[in-house]
Amino acid sequence: MNERVLPSFPATAAPEQSGPLARRLTVPVKVGHVTVGGGAPIVVQSMTNTDTADIDATVRQVAALARQGSELVRITVDRDEAAAAVPKIRERLDRIGVDVPLVGDFHYIGHKLLADHPACAEALAKYRINPGNVGFKDKKDRQFGQIVETAIRYGKPVRIGANWGSLDQELLTVLMDENARSAQPLDARAVMREAMVQSALLSAARAEEIGLAREFIILSAKVSGVQDLITVYRMLASRADYAIHLGLTEAGMGSKGIVASSAALGILLQEGIGDTIRFSLTPEPGGDRTLEVKAAQELLQTMGFRAFVPLVAACPGCGRTTSTVFQELAQDIQGWISSSMPEWKTRYPGVENLNVAVMGCIVNGPGESKHADIGISLPGTGETPTAPVFVDGEKVATLRGAGISAEFKTMVADYVARRYGVGAPPA
Predict the structure, then answer these.
(1) Residue 161 and residue 179: Cα distance in Å, rounded?
(2) What is the structure's pLDDT at 9?
């Protein structure tokens, strides 16, 4: 019999990478009580879609976003009524114990609104401006300067956000003309990407000339195409050490928006690029605005950058699991954990790192359950109607009957208290 020869691998093969690359070192920026950049944990932010002048609706939505875990919340400040509402919104949020920093989103007349409403300028934790929408022609530099001077006066950071849809047309025209005269001209999209990067960097340099310190500047360069976004942010990150906000603009609705944002942001985060992120998801009519926060958190937790809530691993099901029992249990456990988290976070520090497995048959069930902190392996079709439970890799019980869900939740609660409670050994 011929002996089987296994293939050999070259000695120069790249070492296996088992985790994210090192974070790109950026200048830290304080936004209220939140630090962005400088090696701080990647910050999740979101934006309201209420009329900011509607104080009740805006307070409700900001509070919902913050309670879901948004660490910064951006609100539109587009007219006098909105600017006048901002300090009242801040006061109401403080009164109900929601201390999330508010970011003001300004376009076209931001300089005037900040000047006319000093209480708004003071109440906001950060200003967000787009170089392409600050002003036009001779007004652009003057109005940009007025916003920066206001930021300096009140000690507020500024996010300078170049955007594909509202690019500085004067700069773009100059670059397009230069490109047309080049011996080897680039395609139009490449010129637009360069224009975005230059717009952000030139604006940041101008802000520093006026007197805004580097630790008060955050940059972003948002486009709606995944490959364009990856390229633009790589270019931006390679040219400066400003803190960077990541986001795929106009990502879309539902799974499309989540997948597109995850694909683009995941690649950049893996390369160490990005200090704060937002999923710009279009909600369904009357839909849950906090979905964009959940999606951003899940991306960071899945990639190993942050931990927000315990993870529940569950198998997808197959022909061996024609019963829906394990699906119902997985859903039940996930919902129960989510509803328990507000209390658990205060009583059990570190509980967000918990891993729970709810599996559906004998093929992968026991193995996956052993890898979790606590896991249950339900019987598949035709299997003995028993459900072994594993804790820290060891089988500790076998559950049977209609009370499996309640019994397993009790075991999870006991495990949480034992592992993360006061006096528990470090996890």
Answers:
(1) 24
(2) 47
DSSP letter at 307 equals -
> Where are the extended beta strands (E) located within 285-346?
311-314
3-state secondary structure of 22: coil
Least confident of 75-89, 109-123, 219-233: 219-233
Tens of pLDDT along 22-41? 888 899 999 999 999 999 99
Nearby residues of 268 by Cβ (< 8 Å), 6 or more positions away: 229, 230, 233, 234, 246, 274
How many C-beta atoms lie closer than 10 Å to residue 286's C-beta?
5
Please give the structure tokens belonging to residue 341: 């988290």
Q: Where are the alpha helices (DSSP H) in 69-124?
A: 80-95, 110-116, 118-123
User: Quick check: 316 pLDDT over 80?
Assistant: no
Q: CB of 53 within 8 A of CB of 86?
A: no
* Distance separating the N- and C-terminal Cα atoms of the chain: 52
283 C-beta neighbours (distance < 10 Å), count: 15
Beta strand extents in 369-421 (DSSP E only): 374-377, 387-391, 394-399
Closest CA to 365 of 352, 375, 373: 375
Cβ atoms within 10 Å, residue 111: 22
Q: What is the phi-psi region of residue 217: left when phi exceeds 0, alpha when psi lies from -120 to 50, beta otherwise?
A: beta
**pLDDT for 364-401, tens place per residue?**
667 778 888 998 887 766 666 788 899 999 999 998 88
Chain-centroid distance, C-alpha 12: 37
Statement: the pTM of the whole predicted model exceeds 0.70: yes
Query: HSE on the CB side for 252, CA within 13 Å?
Result: 12
